[in-house]
Each structure stands twice: as structure tokens, then as C-alpha cells.
Amino acid sequence: MNKTQTFRDLIVWQKGIDLVLLIYSLSKKFPKEEIYGLTSQMRRASVAIPSNISEGYIRRHPKEYAQFINIAFASGAELETQLEICQKLGYITEREYQKSSELISEIMKMLNKLSSVLRASS
To answer: Which residues contact 49 (CB under 8 A, 6 or more apart)?
Structure first.
């Protein structure tokens, strides 16, 4: 059995990093007046996902880890809402919206599963 050595080995963390890169790429094209609005909020929310995964992992206590996974999950929900707003405002295309939504959905499912496993082990 392959044992996880570090948070970098977690697929959900790796996908979280991919999401950060995608959000930064998408938000570069937003109007300049959004620099302190949606651009900033979306970047913070996306960065919070892998950041909370890694912080929770490093604490090594299932209850604390689960709390950080729940924070990452909440950031994902926040980001889902912001992406929908961007799509409705025409800041991103339907294709960009679908690509980012699919990645977030995948991450959210993984976080939900991880949270369930951690709750069961604490």
C-alpha cells in the first residue's frame, strides 16, 4: 500500500494547485475595476483550498485536519458562486466556466470524502 508522506502526495491538494493556476489565468482577463473585487476574492478563495488542505494535514490530528478540510470546502463553495457571477457578467466564456466548474466539483467531492473519513477516525 502506498503511504502518503506529505500533503504534496494528496491528489486533492495537487488538483487544488491546478485550480489556483486556472483561476489566476482566468482572472488576468477581468476588467481592471475588478482588481479589488472578484479578482481578489477569487484568487484568495482558490489559494485557500490547497492552503487549508496542507495546514490541516501537517497538524496530524484528525479532528483538526477535518476542520481545515471543512474550511477548504467552504472556500470551494465560495469560488463556485464567484465563477457563476463571472460567467453571468461575461468575464469568462461558457467553456472556461465549464472547465473550472468541473475541476471545483471534483475537488469538492474529494474534500467531502476526506472529511467523512477524518470524522470517522476521530
So the answer is: 16, 19, 20, 72, 75, 76, 79, 107
Report the alpha-carbon distance of residue 91 to residue 52 in Å, rounded.
27
Q: Can you tell me which residue has the cell 467553456?
A: 95
Per-residue model confidence as pLDDT tens digits over 1-25:
356 789 999 999 999 999 999 999 9
What are the residue boundaries of the structural domains of the chain, listed by start? 8-121
Of 83, 10, 15, 7, which Cα lies nearest the Cα of 45?
83
- pLDDT digits over 27-77, tens only? 999 999 999 999 999 999 999 999 999 999 998 788 999 999 999 999 999
Q: Which CATH class is domain 8-121?
A: mainly alpha
